[in-house]
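Work Package 3 (structural annotation) set out to generate three-dimensional models for the target panel prioritized at the project kickoff. During this period the team completed the workflow that converts sequence records into discrete structure tokens, so that structures can be stored uniformly alongside our sequence database. As a representative example, we reproduce one entry of 561 residues exactly as it appears in the project archive.
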Amino acid sequence: MDNPGNRTLMGFTRRIGLWLGAAVVLGGAAAVMLVLQLAVLARIVSDLAFHGRVVSDESAGLAMLLALLAGRALLQWAADMVAYEGALRLTAAMRRELLRHLFHVGPVGLAGQATGHMVTVMGGGIAALEPYFAQYVPRAAMMVVLPLLVLGVVMHLDAWSFVILACTGPLIPVFMALVGYRAQAIMDRQWTQLLLLGSAFLDALQGLTTLRLFGRARDAVTAVVGMADEYRTTTMSVMKVAFLTSAVLEFFASLSIALVAVVFGARLLDGKADFQSAFLVLLLAPEYFMPLRAFSASYHARQNATAAMAGISQLFSLPETATLPDAWGSTAGAPLVSIRCEDVTAGYQADEPVLSHAGCTFTRNVLTVVTGESGVGKTTLIRLLLGLIHPTQGRVTAMDECGVSHGHWQDRIGWVPQQPRLVHGTVAENLRLANPMADIDTLRAAAAEADALSFIEALPQGFDTMVGERGAGLSGGQVQRLALARVLLRNPQVLILDEPTANLDPRSEQRVAAAIARAAVGRIGIVVAHRPAMIAQAAQVASLRDGQVFSSPHAPVERAA
């Protein structure tokens, strides 16, 4: 696991240190070419104005000027591209790392997190870091490189101009920092409002049906509109601070350049300075402040990144509770014959275990139905088997037919939740979510095993029939059988289902229960159920009460062939 110190802005910046270093080197080379370009320009103007030369006499100088101009533009373009490439690679890696971390946290650990908050952090939050790495960090480095280079040249040309620039230049970062403290507080508030707005909007969409039933849809819309208006107002406050920062920068830059011009003008009139040196210093003075202008333009990127990083760090700090398999859907190795829970204690708070010293065994070719009242620990037991939580005491082991215990057996599980999800697409596309390479014959075989083939073929276009979001257009029983067929495409060795017959009519309940019983043959079958039709198919019933599991054999009904 990565060092938590690497999950700060400074830590992430170090990860692309080579990219940023290359960008700074290229930018520094472009700065050297800029100084040389201005020196050549000052010499050409001086020769034309005071040494009686004509344009044709300066062909070599003009060629050098164009070459320096092209070289500088090319180097600056390369510096920008290198910085952006490094930023893109880093933000992509951050998304993968955060997504993988959230998988390790699991649905149990994420239960208290607002979906809108996580979506905003994964999307806009990480995107807000890209300008920070691509613009702010390289420009912060160039804010040191180019001014020092200019100061070195000016010091060689004129001591008074050097003193003026050296004294006025540092004032700009100081006043920008003073303004930035206020800006950071506003940016933090803006980011918080964006998170709240995203969460409220998603909650309103998810509860739209309930809101309409109770006549509160308009109130929800009004609330979201009010939050959006607050976000707009805060955004305008940020813009005001940005304009203030630019005004401070322009004031001191203009003041410094004016002082240089006045001092040099007076000395030129007295004959104490030469035109070429004065002209070059006046050309260099605006460039002395140019990195500060660029830095000021990207300073808001730092404030955005600092505010966004708080949300990203909060997600990274969530403790990992789930086991992420190394090979999803793998069936390599000898088939599993049993899963055993030995002296297992588990829960969500250390002092309030849901399961206490519980023990049970699930074996192959034995369909086990887990029953019990609400809150006794059925979901906790299933989460233990799925690897979503870990026992605080005891262990859960799986043995194969060779008597070998497996450490990563959860990747052999096929899981069907109580409310399986179907996506908008064809029946075949929904099934192939489990096995993208499955051909039509494989789809038909899995559908037949789940007792879904007959109704699929009765659809207008068969496997090519479009299915609406969440299975719109299909009955509850059909959705359950499609979900079972999808899981069977992975050929799992362990089949776990949660209340698969809940909310089904008696006929659909019978068909789904019979299909599950057939699918459990040759596998370790575990079903959480209360309905009689499902319990009737069980060969073993595991009853949960008082934190314990009490298993007993059960005579299943005659199973249809």
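Confidence is low (pLDDT under 50) at residues 326-331.
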